[in-house]
UniProtKB/TrEMBL annotation:
The lineage of its organism: Bacteria, Pseudomonadati, Pseudomonadota, Gammaproteobacteria, Oceanospirillales. The chain crosses the membrane at residues 20-37, 49-75, 95-123, 175-204, 245-262, 268-287, 308-326, 346-368, 380-400, 420-441. One of its GO terms (cellular component) is plasma membrane. This is Short-chain fatty acid transporter. PANTHER family: SHORT-CHAIN FATTY ACID TRANSPORTER-RELATED (PTHR41983:SF2). Keywords: Membrane, Transmembrane, Transmembrane helix. Residues 211-233 are annotated as: Disordered.
């Protein structure tokens, strides 16, 4: 396992470029295939498909950005940070530290991937400080990132919350599927339970032996004392600054958002990506001391969203070519020829895991893969909710060796991808077996 881990680390560090570089080559490949696909298409026609697709999912792109930004901001609020720091003082042994870090990261990632990555980094760093000298810090950080594996099967998962939203881009093909059939289905909850048991156990088994050295955080790294910049003297504030440092504004907006959500659910409304976003905004506003503080949190979250902003329109453009040239239908038919209604989730899971290496954003992957697997599910009369969740779990699975999403967490933890990739690659191998079996059982 250590040899496999070192191999993955070497490949990732030396040969894996930024995801935008992959997007460039994928674009060229899709355009070329579009021209020669089937009986052939005029280059101008393929270019029209590409351009029309580019502008087709702006609403979806904005939704995914807001999930990240609002989750990031919530994780940085003082009450949340204080609660996370208190949890790091509960474990007493190295095994307890690894298990606790994994489970906390899982819970936060289940709530939202943006929230989970930031919270996981904060918890891992604080665990390294509180238990300095008694734990192997790279393994603790790997545990925090390994908890991220559950994100797409959770409350903030892109695919299940998108397909529960009226007007989503595949509604004509699959309808609206509520989260009761995806996130809260018996099959998905069973998979989550398996991850809760398997992932911490594997991480604990990889800890150094008692006589082996452990890497710790430098002594200069100190615990977050929750101090913030002092507020300006009120007598020196302009009227504009008094409004910006007012507690009343974020408090009022947060209450208004919560009232709308309460009315939505009381009157029979369901969970979808819009309610997830508004819920994160509401809590973030309520937990912020003043408007400027919340603006600062959102600014930090916006910086981490650059990959989504740059990439999603290009994925949509490729989706336009794949759909317009008939490529999606033909690939779906090929998938139908080797799959059955029972095995389609398994093949969808494997293909999603492979595609995730090239399209590391779950929402962007659904843009590309969704039309194909849903068309196959329609032809085979397979359960579309199960097929959609198979894609979701495939995306989450190979994130364990996909460096794209490690960046926010590693920036907080202060490590490099090479420090944790050996451990997370083992997690990918073991969970791949568990998830693969589960795809035949759901």
């Amino acid at each position: 396992m250590r040899l496999i881990g070192r191999l993955f680390t070497h490949i990732a560090v030396r040969y894996l470029p930024d995801a935008f570089v992959f997007l460039f080559f994928l674009t060229l490949a899709v355009l070329g295939l579009g021209i020669f696909w089937g009986d052939g298409h005029e280059p101008r026609q393929v270019l029209d498909y590409w351009g029309n697709g580019f502008f087709s999912i702006y609403e979806f792109t904005c939704q995914i950005i807001l999930v990240l930004v609002s989750g990031y901001a919530l994780a940085h609020t003082r009450p949340v940070r204080r609660a996370l720091i208190k949890l790091t003082h509960l474990p007493r042994t190295e095994v307890q530290v690894i298990v606790a870090t994994t489970l906390i990261a899982m819970l936060c990632s289940w709530i939202s991937w943006g929230f989970g990555l930031v919270a996981g980094g904060l918890v891992a760093r604080e665990m390294g400080i509180v238990h300095r000298g008694r734990v192997h810090y790279p393994l603790v950080v790997a545990a925090a990132y390994s908890g991220f594996i559950v994100w797409h099967g959770g409350y903030g998962g892109s695919i299940p919350t998108v397909i529960a939203n009226p007007g989503h881009f595949l509604e004509a093909e699959m309808g609206i599927i509520p989260v009761s059939q995806t996130v809260f289905s018996i099959g998905n909850l069973a998979i989550l339970a398996a991850m809760v048991l398997v992932v911490p156990a594997v991480l604990v088994s990889m800890r150094p032996r008692a006589d082996e050295p452990r890497t710790s955080l430098p002594e200069g790294e100190q615990s977050d004392d929750m101090t913030t910049a002092p507020l300006p003297e009120r007598s020196h504030m302009t009227p504009a600054l008094r409004l910006e440092y007012s507690r009343l504004i974020p408090l009022t907006l947060g209450v208004i958002a919560l009232l709308w959500l309460a009315d939505h659910f009381i009157t029979g409304g369901g969970v979808n990506i819009n309610t997830v976003i508004l819920g994160f905004f509401a809590l973030g506003l309520l937990f912020s001391r003043h408007t400027r503080e919340y603006i600062t949190f959102c600014t930090g979250g916006s910086r981490t969203a650059y990959g989504i902003i740059m990439q999603f329109p290009f994925y949509a453009a490729m989706m336009g070519v794949i759909s317009g040239t008939g490529m999606a239908t033909d690939i779906g038919s090929a998938l139908v020829s080797i799959a059955s209604s029972e095995s389609l989730p398994f093949y969808s899971f494997l293909s999603a895991g492979l595609i995730n290496f090239f399209i590391p954003a779950g929402g962007g992957q659904w843009i590309m893969q969704g039309p194909i697997v849903i068309d196959a599910a329609r032809q085979l009369d397979a359960d579309m909710a199960n097929v959609a969740m198979a894609v979701a779990w495939g995306d989450a699975w190979t994130n364990m060796v996909q460096p794209f999403w490690t960046l926010p967490l590693l920036a907080i933890a202060g490590l490099q991808i090479r420090d944790i990739m050996g451990y997370t690659s083992v997690i990918m191998l073991v969970t791949g077996v568990v998830l693969g079996v589960a795809m035949f059982l759901i």
